[in-house]
Amino acid sequence: MQRKNQIQKKKRFALIAIKRLEDELFAYRDAIKHRHEQYKLSWGDITLTPYKPTVVNCDFDEKKLNSASAALIKIFQATDNLLIDITRARRSGEFSHEAYQEYYQSEITHLRALIQRVTKICLSFHQKRKELITELSHEKQTSSRN
Questions:
Q1: Separation between Cα atoms, residue 3 and residue 131, nearest integer Å
Q2: Inter-residue contact 14 to 144 (CB < 8 Å)
Q3: With bands split at pLDDT 50, 70 and 90, how would you rate the model's confidence at 69?
Q4: In 10 A of CB 31, how many CB atoms?
Q5: For residue 8, what pLDDT is reported?
Q6: How many alpha carbons fall within 13 Å on the CB side of residue 60?
Q7: pTM across the whole model
Q8: Alpha-carbon distance 122 to 126, whole Å?
Q9: First vs last Cα of the chain: how many Å apart?
Q10: Using an 8 Å Cβ cutoff, are 24 and 118 in contact?
């Protein structure tokens, strides 16, 4: 019975951590989509001057993806698409080079802040996981002595 409780504790903890991570990632993904849409509404024709960025293919094992890692991949793709459109808009005369740098840096800053928040969540998860494993190990040793 005690072993079953330990397993339930671990599962509950893992679910809370992944939910927190997913919430952060999904909120960011929605925010970047919204910013991109707002930018597009304020810009005119961004296809006036052709711009074809270099495409880099990324291969990954789909079997190892969970919802959080898939969301993170989608965030990087959405950020890439937005940065490409910012470059297209500048090349098409929608704004100055200084404004381009502000748009670009703003998006990089948003992404950097997300990565820092995700890092904190992951560090917290691993720290709590280590504490839980230590606690469960201690409980197991105590019960085996009795």
A1: 17
A2: no
A3: confident
A4: 14
A5: 77
A6: 11
A7: 0.79
A8: 6
A9: 16
A10: yes
